Amino acid sequence: MSDSSQMAELLAALSEQQRTMAALITSLSQNSLREAPTAKASVPSFPPFDRTKETWDVYFARLGQHFEAHRVVSDNRKRAFLLSWVGSDTFELLQKLFAGEEIANVPYDSLVAKLREYWKTSVHVMAARCLFYRQCLQPGQTYAEWVANLRGIGKDCQFLCPDEKCGKSYLDCLIRDVIVTNTPDEQVRLAAAKSFFGAGYRDCRSSRDRYESHGDNQTAPT
To answer: Is the pTM of this model over 0.70?
Structure first.
């Protein structure tokens, strides 16, 4: 084989090697770009726990779904997210419940179990009822938000019929009573007082809707 033929073959081999390397580099770059968003993806924040709006069990169940949706599996990550999201009040409560321990080192399951035990045993019914009856329409708050807040607090009040054969909740009737007593709107008060909560609240709401359609405030005055 002549020198020129050998040179041609060598150049062809080098050219093929360059094409192979270029294809490999392109493939690696594309894989890196596809994987980058996943590697850098952050878990969206979760709202703090507010016992006036939901129970701890409900909050914990929603948090579990949030973890599942964003593939948070490690207990260490769950603990870190829980402590950063749960809110300052609950964070301080955990510090008291685990006095003498660094809560950043307490297992995730222990944190959750301690909070569940606390909320089940320490909610004082009379204190919850006092808080319930004192609730007024706040500046900027809608009637729907007010009712939702009352319903959340009412979960701790044990407003149940004392008759063992009944045992049904009369929370709705008491929500109506609080609206009648504490609303700043006299016409809403009269509408709510006309009948029991079922019809009365619908009358109250329709009355309020009429005022809103004429330009009256949709929320409590600020």
So the answer is: no
* Tally of domains within the chain: 2
Q: 66 in a domain, yes or no?
A: yes
Spatial distance between the Cα atoms of 202 and 180, rounded to a whole number of angstroms: 13
In a domain? residue 18: no
Q: Any bridge partners for residue 220, and if so which?
A: 139
Q: Are residues 100 and 148 in the same domain?
A: no
- State the 10-residue block means of pLDDT for the chain, 222 residues long: 66 73 69 48 89 85 94 94 94 92 94 88 76 91 92 86 78 90 87 58 45 42 48
208 belongs to a structural domain: yes
Residue 41 counted as domain residue? no
- Residue 109 CA: distances (Å) to CA of 74, 103, 112, 115: 12, 12, 5, 10
93 vs 123: CA distance, rounded Å: 14
